[in-house]
Amino acid sequence: MTQQKYEYKVAIYREPLLGSIFLGGSRVDPVRYTEFLNKNAEEGWEVTTMERELRRELLFFKREAFLTIMKREISA
Protein backbone atom coordinates (compact mmCIF):
# COMPACT_ATOMS: atom_id res chain seq x y z
CA MET A 1 0.00 0.00 0.00
CA THR A 2 1.49 3.33 -1.08
CA GLN A 3 1.02 6.45 0.97
CA GLN A 4 -0.18 9.50 -0.95
CA LYS A 5 2.21 12.45 -1.06
CA TYR A 6 1.21 16.07 -1.53
CA GLU A 7 2.80 19.37 -2.38
CA TYR A 8 1.42 22.65 -1.08
CA LYS A 9 1.10 26.14 -2.49
CA VAL A 10 0.40 29.36 -0.56
CA ALA A 11 -1.06 32.26 -2.55
CA ILE A 12 -2.13 35.73 -1.48
CA TYR A 13 -4.84 37.02 -3.80
CA ARG A 14 -5.59 40.74 -3.79
CA GLU A 15 -6.80 43.39 -6.20
CA PRO A 16 -4.42 46.00 -7.66
CA LEU A 17 -3.39 48.89 -5.41
CA LEU A 18 -4.95 51.55 -7.68
CA GLY A 19 -8.46 50.75 -6.42
CA SER A 20 -7.30 51.40 -2.87
CA ILE A 21 -5.70 54.71 -3.80
CA PHE A 22 -8.70 56.07 -5.71
CA LEU A 23 -11.45 54.59 -3.54
CA GLY A 24 -9.72 54.50 -0.14
CA GLY A 25 -10.16 50.75 -0.02
CA SER A 26 -10.32 47.79 -2.36
CA ARG A 27 -12.38 44.60 -2.12
CA VAL A 28 -11.68 41.35 -3.92
CA ASP A 29 -13.74 40.91 -7.10
CA PRO A 30 -15.52 37.54 -6.72
CA VAL A 31 -15.49 36.89 -10.48
CA ARG A 32 -11.71 37.39 -10.76
CA TYR A 33 -11.08 35.37 -7.59
CA THR A 34 -13.21 32.54 -9.02
CA GLU A 35 -11.14 32.64 -12.21
CA PHE A 36 -7.96 32.47 -10.09
CA LEU A 37 -9.28 29.43 -8.19
CA ASN A 38 -10.47 27.68 -11.37
CA LYS A 39 -7.11 28.24 -13.09
CA ASN A 40 -5.34 26.58 -10.15
CA ALA A 41 -7.92 23.75 -10.08
CA GLU A 42 -7.11 23.01 -13.74
CA GLU A 43 -3.49 22.49 -12.64
CA GLY A 44 -4.64 20.01 -9.98
CA TRP A 45 -4.63 22.33 -6.96
CA GLU A 46 -7.33 21.93 -4.30
CA VAL A 47 -8.03 24.62 -1.70
CA THR A 48 -7.45 23.34 1.83
CA THR A 49 -7.60 26.61 3.78
CA MET A 50 -8.64 30.15 2.98
CA GLU A 51 -8.52 33.22 5.22
CA ARG A 52 -9.76 36.74 4.49
CA GLU A 53 -7.67 39.62 5.75
CA LEU A 54 -7.53 43.39 5.38
CA ARG A 55 -4.07 44.63 4.46
CA ARG A 56 -2.93 48.19 4.98
CA GLU A 57 -1.03 49.77 2.10
CA LEU A 58 0.88 53.07 2.15
CA LEU A 59 -0.39 53.93 5.68
CA PHE A 60 -3.84 55.21 4.62
CA PHE A 61 -5.26 52.66 2.19
CA LYS A 62 -6.73 49.21 2.80
CA ARG A 63 -6.99 46.21 0.51
CA GLU A 64 -8.94 43.04 1.09
CA ALA A 65 -6.88 39.91 0.45
CA PHE A 66 -7.36 36.16 0.65
CA LEU A 67 -4.59 33.93 1.92
CA THR A 68 -5.23 30.63 0.15
CA ILE A 69 -3.45 27.35 0.88
CA MET A 70 -3.78 24.65 -1.78
CA LYS A 71 -2.50 21.12 -2.18
CA ARG A 72 -2.18 18.57 -4.96
CA GLU A 73 -1.06 14.99 -5.08
CA ILE A 74 2.49 14.27 -6.22
CA SER A 75 2.76 11.41 -8.69
CA ALA A 76 5.30 8.89 -7.49
Describe the structure.
The chain is of the alpha+beta class and 76 residues long. It has one domain (12-74). The protein contains 2 helices and 4 strands. It has helices at 17-23, 30-42, and strands spanning 5-14, 25-26, 46-57, 61-74. The model is unreliable at 19-25 (pLDDT under 50).
Which structural class do the helices and strands define? alpha+beta
Binned strand content: over 45%
Mean of the pLDDT scores? 82
Question: SSE string, helix = H, strand = E?
Answer: EHEHEE
Distance between the termini: 13 Å
Instruction: Bin the helical content.
Output: 25-40%
Gross geometry: elongated
Number of distinct helices: 2
Which blocks of ≥5 consecutive residues have pLDDT under 50? 19-25
Please outline the major beta sheet.
4 strands, mixed
Q: Tell me the domain tally.
A: 1
Multimeric organization: single chain
Short summary of the structure?
By secondary structure, the chain is an alpha+beta fold. The protein has helices spanning 17-23, 30-42; strands spanning 5-14, 25-26, 46-57, 61-74. It has one domain (12-74).
Topology:
Blueprint: E1 5-14, H1 17-23, E2 25-26, H2 30-42, E3 46-57, E4 61-74
Parallel strand pairs: 2-4
Antiparallel strand pairs: 1-4, 3-4
